[in-house]
Amino acid sequence: MPPKRFPTRHLHTLRTHNGPVNAVTFSSYPGTYVLTGSSDRAIHLSRAVPSNAENSATPVETTTPIQRYEAHGYSVLDVAVATDNARFASVGGDRQVFLWDVEQGGTTRRWTGHNSKVKAVQFAGEGDSVVVSGSADTTINLWDTRSNANKPIQTLAEASDTVSSLHVNMPTYSIASGSYDGHVRVYDVRMGKTTVDVLAHPVTSVRCSVDGNALLTSTLDSYIRMLDRTDGSLLAAFGGPSKKAEGPTLGILDTKPRHTYRNTELRVRSVFAQGDAVVLSGSEAAPKGDGTATGAAVFAWDILSGETVATVPMGENVKAVSCVAWNEKGYWAAGCADSTVRVFG
Fold it and tell me: Entry's InterPro entries (predicted)?
């Protein structure tokens, strides 16, 4: 079934942070709120779409969050929300894993088992009783939220470089991880089995489809690949290095600048959207003078056809969109290097 028309109307701009936004996630269904983590060391809770945004001719701007969560001493690099919306976990340059009480506004646990930046965090287990963290120290740690122990219940140490991304798929009891060593590893927690796919380029993002059968991976060669979880075969590829404009033999070139998907240096996240029918990703801005438009954009591709269904520029001064989030009510959010978060619907 082809995806519904992809939503590209700019509804809301959040100007609450004063540093690049590294993490953005909607609260659990119905996703009324959005949690954002930034290099300014803070996590902000804001309304995703203010009540007046739908009928406004221009995007509504918010400059003050509903709640600020401040305990990190370094950049916040990832945030995950529990299903009950009462707790969330955050990680960053502190080498610690923080568990927060949303209403109280403070941390309830701080785990210190990593010895380098922590890049990724996810909830797992029954009732979100486990927190999973991935670090630049090459390990993945599993923490029990119900026990007072300070040591992880399990450490996965197969990676040989930074673990940049994690995604837990509870229906298949699996943890997918991406690492700068160019490998995607999927841990089947029930069977105690690990499957490995070699992508030969640093992996910046990994997501499982809802049914757990497909893996979406972003790598620093400007490609997003969808892999078959069972045998690692390539199901589809999106993006790819920009192709220079080639004119007819008369030598007339198409000089109109255009946005091309680019990811060669930074950790850029990609996600499934519209019920796994679309791939949505941020990107890096192209270097000046290479014929492509300056400023980063968000891209959406139809999974079946591979066609680009939307290219949404974020403005000439935005060097990167490092994170995106999709909400099944039809909204999506982009976290930008210019410290803004923009919500579309």
Answer: WD40/YVTN_repeat-like_dom_sf, WD40_PAC1, WD40_repeat_CS, WD40_repeat_dom_sf, WD40_rpt, WD_repeat_MORG1
Indicate whether 64 belongs to any domain: yes
Residue with tokens 């014929």, as numbered in its chain: 291
Does residue 329 fall inside a structural domain?
A: yes
Sign of the C-alpha dihedral computed for residues 11, 29, 204 and 118 taken in this order: positive
Q: Give 29's contacts (C-beta < 8 A, 6+ positions apart).
A: 328
Tell me whether residue 1 is in a domain. no
Q: Is there a domain that residue 253 lies in?
A: no
The CATH number of whichever domain residue 109 belongs to comes to 2.130.10.10
Q: Whole-angstrom Cα distance, residue 112 to residue 96?
A: 5
Name the E strands within 189-330.
193-198, 203-208, 214-219, 223-228, 234-239, 270-273, 278-281, 297-302, 308-313, 321-327
Per-residue pLDDT tens over the stretch 1-15: 555 799 999 999 999
Tokens encoding 246 = 């080639």
**125 lies in which domain range?**
10-245+259-344
Which residues of the chain are under the pLDDT cut of 70? 1-3, 242-257, 289-293
What predicted TM-score, i.e. pTM, was given to this entire model? Answer: 0.93
CB 331 within 8 A of CB 341: no
CA distances from residue 137 to 37, 92, 117, 184 in whole angstroms, order as listed:
21, 13, 7, 16
128-154 pLDDT, tens digit each = 999 999 999 999 999 999 999 999 999
